[in-house]
């Protein structure tokens, strides 16, 4: 007897309808559909084959998650704020703000990434190393978005498959540092950790972690995403427009 088993149907469900809101338990029921092919050879050399399908008992994986779950994990790059009460007040204010990303947006991206995992699409991800308060303006956001769109078009024609373009934008502030301190001309100060934590100017006041920067960072997150949504839904990202950008660039290169 020869038996071949094929399995794998996964259902994902969650109690929480909003992304970024804590206090939920995520359940991952795994229902295994098993198809079995039995091949039997009888004495008279007749081969009989039968196919049967069954479902195994579902097993459930429970993942307990909350907004404070991360506090139980080891962390070595968290800033030390001088005023704990001010930090607590700022965090409370931030929690009261509307979510930056909505669940449907995350679900749509998840479906697209699944296609990339099965080699049905190509994933393009890019952005600057870090965002800053100083360079926050519509022109910079537009130019970065435009470059990503142009790269996506080139890859689409080259790879002959859909391209999923992901911009690391609206939140690329904090920077991991190999050293906690920076030394210049014999002066030792805490390292610059990103505009949402402290300033890049090399002076004692700028390098003190300031929780007020978290409020400004949130506002920049929202402003960046709102502009990107306007670009994608308002016709700026239309294929005809992006293709024309590439043609214009090629013409300028030829003239040079």
Proportion of helical residues: 25-40%
- Enumerate how many helices there are, as a single number: 5
Biggest β-sheet, characterized?
4 strands, antiparallel
CATH topology of the largest domain: TIM Barrel
Span of the ends, CA to CA: 73 Å
- What order do the helices and strands follow? EEEEEEEHHEHEEEHH
Low-confidence stretches: 1-58
Q: Averaged pLDDT, please?
A: 77
Strand content: 15-25%
Gyration radius, rounded: 26 Å
What is the overall shape?
globular
The appropriate CATH architecture of the largest domain is: Alpha-Beta Barrel
CATH class of the largest domain: Alpha Beta
Number of domains: 2
Main structural class: alpha+beta
Q: Superfamily at the CATH H level of the largest domain?
A: Aldolase class I
Notes on the structure:
The longest helix is centred in the middle third of the chain and has 22 residues, at 138-159. The strands form 4 sheets. Strands 2, 3, 4 and 7 form a 4-stranded antiparallel sheet that branches. The chain has a 3-stranded antiparallel sheet with strand order 1-5-6, with no helix packed on it. A two-stranded parallel ribbon has the order 8-9. The chain starts with a strand and ends with a helix. By secondary structure, it is an alpha+beta fold. Helix content is 35%, strand content 23%. It has 2 domains: 2-64, no CATH class; 75-255, Alpha-Beta Barrel (TIM Barrel). The chain is built from 5 helices and 11 strands, in the order βββββββααβαβββαα. It has helices spanning 84-96, 103-117, 138-159, 212-233, 239-255, and strands at 2-6, 9-10, 13-14, 24-31, 33-41, 47-55, 59-65, 122-126, 163-167, 181-184, 187-190. The chain is globular and about 55 Å long. Pathway: Metabolic intermediate biosynthesis; chorismate biosynthesis; chorismate from D-erythrose 4-phosphate and phosphoenolpyruvate: step 1/7. Belongs to the class-II DAHP synthase family. Its EC number is 2.5.1.54.
């Amino acid at each position: 007897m020869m038996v071949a088993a094929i399995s794998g149907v996964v259902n994902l469900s969650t109690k929480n309808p909003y992304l970024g809101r804590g206090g939920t338990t995520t359940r991952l029921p795994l229902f295994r559909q098993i198809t079995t092919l039995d091949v039997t050879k009888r004495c008279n050399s007749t081969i009989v084959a039968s196919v049967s399908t069954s479902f195994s008992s579902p097993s459930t994986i429970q993942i307990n998650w909350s907004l404070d779950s991360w506090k139980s994990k080891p962390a070595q790059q968290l800033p030390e704020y001088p005023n704990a009460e001010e930090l607590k007040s700022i965090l409370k204010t931030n929690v009261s703000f509307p979510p930056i990303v909505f669940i449907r947006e995350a679900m749509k991206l998840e479906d697209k990434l699944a296609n990339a995992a099965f080699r049905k699409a190509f994933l393009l991800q890019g952005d600057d190393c870090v965002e800053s308060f100083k360079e926050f303006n519509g022109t910079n956001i537009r130019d970065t978005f435009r470059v990503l769109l142009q790269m996506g078009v080139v890859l689409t024609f080259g790879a002959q498959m859909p391209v999923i373009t992901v911009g690391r934008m609206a939140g690329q502030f904090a920077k991991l540092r190999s050293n906690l301190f920076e030394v210049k001309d014999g002066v030792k100060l805490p390292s610059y950790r990103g505009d949402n934590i402290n300033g890049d100017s090399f002076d004692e006041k700028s390098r003190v972690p300031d929780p007020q920067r978290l409020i400004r960072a949130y506002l920049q997150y929202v402003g960046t995403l709102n502009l990107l949504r306007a670009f994608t839904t308002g016709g700026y990202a239309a294929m005809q427009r992006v293709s024309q950008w590439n043609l214009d660039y090629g013409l300028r290169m030829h003239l040079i």
